[in-house]
Amino acid sequence: MDLNDAPDYLSAPPHSEAQTKAEALDYDISVFEMFSIGIGPSSSHTVGPMRATNRFIAELIDAGTLTEVTRVHIDLYGSLAATGAGHGTMSAALKGLAGFVPETIDIAAAEALMDRNQVDGALPLAGYPLAAYADGAPGPGATRVSGPVLIYKEADITLRPLTVLPRHTNGIKVTAYAGERVLLERTYFSIGGGFIVEEHEESSGSTGLSMAPYPFGSGEELLDMANTAGLSIAQLKMENEKTERSESEVRAGILHIRQVMKECIGSSLERMGYLPGPLKVRCRAGQWHRDLLAEDPQKSPEFAIDWVNLIALAVNEENAFGGRIITAPTNGASGIIPAVLHYALNYVPSVRHRGQKVIDDAVVDFFLAAASIGALYKKRASISGAEVGCQGEVGTASSMAAAGLAQVMGGSNEQIENAAEIAMEHNLGLTCDPVGGLVQIPCIERNAMAASNAVTAAKMALRGDGQHRVSLDQVIETMRQTGEDMSHRYKETSMGGLAVNVVEC
């Protein structure tokens, strides 16, 4: 696939959003912000830092000072420093300085750059065709701008794992020098899902879909607005999306996201051997796929969960390799949405074997409903494992997937909200404790478990009438409070849990 064929708006990074919980939430977050094209293994520790350093280079270009740069120093704080080695944070930051962006990065060229850097330290600022521009991403007809080639040494990155900046634990400071003179210094925060925000940047309540006709700020508002307008949650979301692009563009963009997910799965199923890093985790998806094809060539309902597990593992194994991934809403949780979508398209009677138009409609509705729920977590709590633990990543993705599946299964708005609530309720307190700082153990299997959880949640919700004791808003607030109370050892620092009890060997 030529990524240049993707709709332009899929190449724009998510808006920088650091909404405080006390502020007005009268806007919506686009489906193309909740689901964006990136690379593995982490949206917060790989995609975010690459976007941050890319934006930094863009500012130097705009100021006309790029050619004056003689040195760039990077300081990584908190979780970025603690688990950066396992997450590829340092190399991602360098790739951003070189001009790569997550949405369209040439992975082979970027790795060749890193290999060269290991040999002679060379790092060309904005030296690649996908160089940075004013908005932090390449645009149609943009002119390539090349800067100097620096000799970038290990000492040019300082790790400060015990220093947590006030705004967020994922801090990155970038400083450009001309000799001893500071040309530019900026501090960014990678706040989950690939979203970044600058230190003194105001919260972005006016960005995203700020002109949306249905600017819901809570699950209760979402239900009230949808029911009053006589719309499903997916239909309401489509109306909001249409404030920025036509319905046909929204559909094309969502179907393109689905295509990237399929290609990610296909790439993973061809891999053999072991995942990168010292843990020697065996690649399982390819062999599982061959076994399942032999056991279940007709995709019998008896094997439905086996296929769900397979898809989740395949996506997250590809993520571990640093492959091309859709943040859904994060990389660490990227296998859940495609796994549950696979279930929706292959095991829901109203969709299965009904033709391409029905399948495409189901894909669009699934993503729109899921994005509506994801926006609530993003605005009212967090989707960052470094901020609230894995409940914010895998828990949110499971909740989103359950809502998407309930939508495709024909659930009412109340049943969709109930499905989302059930899925999160049973992920509360989930810790983020990656062994060795790698997005492998327990992350990969955890995606499969959360995908199965989402399927169960949707089925349970559709057995009821939508009336339930615990609301989605209550469970989101509980997740936020639980994350605040959680020890930093369980927030993507690899200082507690499995990370200290599983021996790396």
Automatic annotation (TrEMBL):
Recorded GO MF terms: 4 iron, 4 sulfur cluster binding; L-serine ammonia-lyase activity; metal ion binding
Serine dehydratase-like alpha subunit domain location: 229-499
Residue stretches spanning the membrane: none
Catalysed reactions, as listed in the record: L-serine = pyruvate + NH4(+)
GO biological process, one term: gluconeogenesis
Domain Serine dehydratase beta chain residue range list: 30-200
InterPro entries listed in its UniProt record: ASB_dom_sf, Fe-S_L-Ser, Fe-S_L-Ser_mono, Ser_deHydtase-like_asu, Ser_deHydtase_bsu
Gene3D superfamilies: D-3-phosphoglycerate dehydrogenase, domain 3
Cofactor or coenzyme needed: [4Fe-4S] cluster
Domain of life: Bacteria
Protein name: L-serine dehydratase
Species annotation: Rothia nasimurium
